[in-house]
Write a structure and sequence with these properties.
The protein has eight helices and six strands; from the N terminus they run H-E-H-E-H-H-E-H-H-H-E-E-E-H. It has helices spanning 35-77, 113-123, 133-138, 154-157, 166-180, 183-189, 199-219, 250-260, and strands at 93-96, 129-131, 161-163, 228-229, 238-239, 244-247. A hairpin with an 8-residue loop joins strand 4 and strand 5 (238-239). Helix 5 packs across helix 7. Pfam families: UstYa.
């Protein structure tokens, strides 16, 4: 009698399936996956991480490219200056100009000490700033023929040239013309060096400032459009001079100038070896 522990032999095609339900195909050793299959599997698992990393790199690229583009624009649109490398001009802001006639503005109007102090708060940027010879050359000038850093300051500021920021001079000119429109007040006050000059010298100074402002405005000709609106009782459209502008931060420029300033403003003298031009009214 056959023991119940015995299992039948596999003899014919009809017996190709074992008692465990496994076919001979199932019992064959598995072939190892090819390297390409393994690579596809790996990439499939890493796909979310790859996408995240590429997105981050792309965002960084666009951010740096935008800053690089802005820096190139700043350099293209401005005279060479050490402030271009400071980051001060990297940010512009939208400013709503007040173009109305009946406005209360601390910069304009009847003169008083508070208004004069307001103007001086920005004209104080008219200080000596060190400039490299390379920057002087890029300005189209000869480094050998410009005023140099005084010897007593060369250890700290180098032996390059010095100059003042044009923005401060432009504000000085506009302020002088403002004061000239209140001639009697400022002649009596005598807080402006220019008003202590003979009348013909003051007139030349005023005309110089007017033409400097004219050249600056024409050089930076603003393409903005002045729209108009209708006002009851007026037969013609009224210009709306209150406009939005993209502006630098003038106070950041003043702060930068004060930090870079060489002590002893204006109190300097020619150093040995400095070039001195012969007297020629045509260059003054």
């Amino acid at each position: 009698m056959a023991s119940e522990n015995y299992k039948p032999l596999l003899s014919g095609p009809e017996d190709r399936t074992s008692v465990d339900g496994l076919s001979d195909t199932d019992l064959r050793p598995l072939k190892p996956k090819s390297w390409s299959s393994r690579l596809v599997t790996l990439l499939s698992r890493l796909r979310p991480y790859i996408i995240a990393i590429l997105s981050l790199l792309l965002a960084i690229h666009f951010y740096l490219d935008k800053r690089s583009f802005h820096s190139r624009c700043v350099r293209e649109l401005h005279t060479p200056s050490p402030i271009l490398n400071s980051g001060v001009l990297d940010k512009y802001s939208t400013v709503n100009l007040n173009g109305t006639l009946n406005f209360k503005e601390k910069w304009a109007g009847t003169p008083n000490d508070a208004r004069d102090e307001q103007w001086q708060s920005i004209i104080k940027a008219d200080v000596w700033i060190p400039v490299t010879d390379d920057e002087v050359k890029k300005m189209g000038k000869d480094p050998e023929k410009v005023v140099r850093v005084p010897p007593q300051h060369r250890d700290q500021y180098g032996d390059g040239a010095i100059g003042v920021m044009d923005f401060a001079h432009q504000m000085h000119c506009l302020d002088l013309v403002r004061k000239y429109t209140y001639f009697d007040y400022y002649m009596e006050k005598q807080d402006e060096e220019a008003f202590g000059n003979p009348p013909h010298v003051l007139r030349v100074h005023i005309d110089h400032c007017i033409d400097m402002m004219r050249q600056f405005i024409m050089c930076n000709a603003d393409p903005g459009i002045v729209t108009h609106f209708w006002v009851e009782g007026r037969p013609t459209p009224y210009p709306d001079f209150s406009m939005q502008k993209q502006c630098k931060d003038p106070w950041a420029m003043v702060e930068w100038a004060e930090k870079k300033a060489i002590p002893g403003y204006k109190l300097i003298y020619p150093s040995p070896g400095e070039f001195i031009f012969p007297w020629d009214p045509s260059i003054l």
